[in-house]
């Protein structure tokens, strides 16, 4: 009988010991010490910031002579910012459009910001990178309002998107 009691006590202690070992293996990750946290812990996903590539568009030049504004969109660029210096200009507002050369499609570019300084007016035109097609295009800036009676083309700029 004493042997049976010792055997039951031994089995009970073994079961308790086993439960204690098993419970230590299943500690939630939040309770693990910092050094025991796995290196591959997922972090909350965050959105990638928008990448804007800026280009200064210059006036003049002829497409056939190779004097165009060449734009090479860097990998990962989401948006393009085209900055056009208009010099002294006194229109109330501006519009811009992009036309593919030898094509019929004209895309109105509505995201325009105008800044004025002592040297003149700069128009900043923002568009999605995919909205500038590969090849040659003409960027047209039109002024309106102010002391001018009708809309007037302020400038045409040849733009070539390189692949």
What is the radius of gyration computed over CA atoms, rounded to a whole number of angstroms? 34 Å
Look at the structure and give the CATH class of one domain: Mainly Beta
What structural class do helix, strand and pairing data support? Answer: mainly beta
Strand order of the largest sheet: 2-9-8-4-5
CATH domain topology of one domain: Immunoglobulin-like
Unreliable stretches covering 5 or more consecutive residues: 22-41
| Helix/strand order, N-terminal first | HEEEEEEEEE
Overall geometry: globular
Largest beta-sheet details: 5 strands, mixed
Strand percent estimate: 35-45%
Helix content: 10-25%
Distance between the termini: 91 Å
What's the number of helices? 1
Mean pLDDT: 77
Description:
With 163 residues, this protein is mainly β. It has a domain at 52-162: Immunoglobulins (Immunoglobulin-like, Sandwich). The chain is built from 1 helix and 9 strands; from the N terminus they run αβββββββββ. It has a 5-stranded mixed β-sheet with strand order 2-9-8-4-5, with no helix packed on it. The longest helix has 24 residues, at 2-25. The model is unreliable at 22-41 (pLDDT under 50).
Strand-helix topology:
Blueprint: H1 2-25, E1 52-57, E2 69-72, E3 79-87, E4 93-100, E5 106-109, E6 112-117, E7 120-128, E8 135-144, E9 152-162
Parallel strand pairs: 1-3, 2-9
Antiparallel strand pairs: 3-7, 4-5, 4-8, 6-7, 8-9
